[in-house]
Design brief:
The structure is a single chain. The protein is of the alpha/beta class. 43% of the residues lie in helices and 14% in strands. The strands form 2 sheets. A 7-stranded parallel beta sheet has the order 3-2-1-4-5-6-7, with helices on both faces. Strands 10-9-8-11-12-13 form a 6-stranded parallel beta sheet. β6, α6 and β7 form a beta-alpha-beta unit. α1 packs across α7 and α7 crosses α12. It is globular, with a radius of gyration of 20 Å. The N and C termini lie close together (11 Å). It binds uridine-diphosphate-N-acetylglucosamine (UD1). Uridine-diphosphate-N-acetylglucosamine binds next to α1, α5 and α10.
Length: 362
C-alpha cells in the first residue's frame, strides 16, 4: 500500500509524527507532502527534527495568503504531485486550508481520501476551520474519528457508513513525550526571561482569527491576561504578533511574558511546569487535559467537549463579562479533584489508522 500524507500547518506535523512512526514499522510506502502553509522554522522544521519525522518528499512552498488564494495555490500545486505519486490513499489531517485542498485534489483525481480527526464540530460557521472540516468530511471516503462524540456528528450528517472510531493520535505523541520528559530524556523547560520555573506560572496561547483579527477583542483578551496575578507565559504565534503590531498593541505588559512558539517537547514541558493553561488552541486544550492541568478556553465553544467534563476545561467567551474577580478566580483555579477519563483513546491510534487503511483498501 502507498499512502500520501498531506500536511502544512503546525498541528498537522504533531499528528503526522505518530503516523509516520507507525508506517515505518510496516512494509507500506508512506510519502509526506508538505504544502508550505507554515514555513517559519519554529512552526515547521522544529517539529520534523524534534519528533523524528522523515523529511517531506515534496514541498509545495505555497506560503501565506487569503483563504481562497492559499487553498487555491495548494490545490493547483497538489494536482501534479498526486498524479505522479498515484497513491492508494491520500491522508489529510485536521481542519486547515491544507486539509481541504489535499482532499479536493485527491477526490478530483479519483484517489481515495482518508480524513484523520474527522467529525469534529464547533457549529460555528464563521470559523475557517469549521468550513474546512465539514467540506473535507463530506469529500472523504474514510472518516477516522478520534472520539465517540465525533462519530455521532458524522452519523448525524449521514456519514456513518464511512466513519470509524480510531482514538486520537495526539494521545500517542503527547503521552510518549510526557514520559520521555519525566524520565529526563528530554531537556527541561525554557521559559521567557523573567519567569522563574520554580514559581507558579500560567501558559497562554492566542492565534485564532476570531480572537486576533478584531482589534477590540484582541485588546480585551490581552488586557485580561495582563491583569492576572501570576506570570503568564505567552508563546506568541506569528499571526498574533502581526495583528498586535498592526494595531499598535503592546503584548509585553502586566503579567505577560512573551516568547516565541516552541517545539512539541518544549510545549509539553511548559504545560507540565505550569499551574494551568489559557488558550484558544484545540490541541492545547487537549494537551492540558491529558497532562492534568486546568484549562481556560477563550472561545464560546469547543470541538473537544470531553475536556469540559469535571471542570478540567472552562469556556470563557469574554473575560470582560466575568468581572475581574471571577476572571482571576477562573484562570487561576486549581486542578479539580475529578478523575481524568480516557475519552481520546489509549495512545495506539496511529497503529490503528495504518491498519484500517490497509484493511479498507479492498
Ligand atoms: C492555521 C490554521 C489553524 C491552525 C493554525 C495552527 C487555517 C485556516 N488555519 O492558522 O486551523 O490552528 O494554523 O497554527 O488553515 N505566518 C507566519 N509564518 C508562518 C505561517 C504563518 O508568519 O510560518 C503568519 C502570516 O502572517 C500568515 C498568518 O500567520 O498570514 C496566518 O497563517 P495561516 O497559515 O493563514 O493560518 P494560521 O493562523 O497559522
Amino acid at each position: 500500500m502507498k499512502v500520501v500524507s498531506v500536511v502544512g500547518a503546525r498541528p498537522q506535523l504533531v499528528k503526522l509524527a505518530p503516523i509516520a512512526a507507525a508506517f515505518a514499522r510496516t512494509e507500506h510506502e508512506h510519502v509526506i507532502v508538505h504544502t508550505g502553509q507554515h514555513y517559519d522554522v519554529n512552526l515547521s522544521d522544529v517539529f520534523f527534527s524534534g519528533l523524528g519525522i522523515p523529511d517531506p518528499a515534496v514541498h509545495l512552498g505555497v506560503g501565506s495568503g487569503g483563504h481562497g488564494a492559499q487553498t487555491g495555490r495548494i490545490l493547483e500545486a497538489m494536482d501534479p504531485v498526486l498524479a505522479a505519486e498515484n497513491p492508494d490513499w491520500v491522508l489529510v489531517y485536521g481542519d486547515t486550508n491544507s486539509t481541504l485542498a489535499g482532499a479536493v485534489s485527491a477526490v478530483k483525481q479519483h484517489i481515495r481520501v482518508a480524513h484523520l480527526e474527522a467529525g469534529l464540530r464547533s457549529f460555528n460557521r464563521r470559523m475557517p476551520e469549521e468550513h474546512n472540516r465539514v467540506l473535507t468530511d463530506h469529500a472523504a471516503d474514510l472518516l477516522l474519528a478520534p472520539t465517540e462524540e465525533a462519530l455521532r456528528h458524522l452519523a448525524t450528517e449521514g456519514l456513518a457508513d464511512r466513519a470509524v472510531l480510531t482514538g486520537d493520535v495526539m494521545v500517542d505523541v503527547c503521552l510518549s513525550i510526557r514520559d520521555a520528559i519525566l524520565a529526563g530524556e528530554r531537556p527541561a523547560v525554557e521559559l521567557p526571561e523573567g519567569v522563574d520555573p520554580a514559581e507558579p506560572y500560567l501558559l497562554a496561547t492566542l492565534h485564532r482569527a476570531e480572537n486576533t483579527d478584531d482589534p477590540a477583542r484582541l485588546a480585551t483578551l490581552v488586557a485580561a491576561l495582563a491583569d492576572l496575578p501570576i506570570p503568564v507565559v505567552l508563546l506568541a504565534h506569528p499571526r498574533l504578533l502581526a495583528r498586535a503590531e498592526a494595531q499598535g498593541l503592546k503584548l509585553a505588559q502586566g503579567a505577560l511574558r512573551v516568547g516565541p512558539p516552541v517545539g512539541y517537547a518544549a510545549m509539553v514541558a511548559t504545560v507540565l511546569g505550569s499551574v494551568g493553561v489559557v488558550t484558544d488552541s484545540g490541541g492545547l486544550q487537549k494537551e492540558a487535559y491529558l497532562l492534568g492541568r486546568p484549562c481556560t478556553t477563550l472561545r464560546s465553544e469547543t470541538e473537544w467537549l470531553e475536556t469540559l467534563d469535571g471542570d478540567w476545561n472552562r469556556l470563557v467567551p469574554d473575560p470582560a463579562l466575568l468581572g475581574p474577580g471571577e476572571w482571576v478566580a477562573t484562570a487561576t483555579r486549581p486542578a479539580p479533584g475529578t478523575p481524568l477519563g480516557t475519552p481520546f483513546g489509549d495512545g495506539r491510534a496511529a497503529e490503528r489508522v495504518v491498519e484500517i487503511l490497509g484493511r479498507r483498501l479492498g
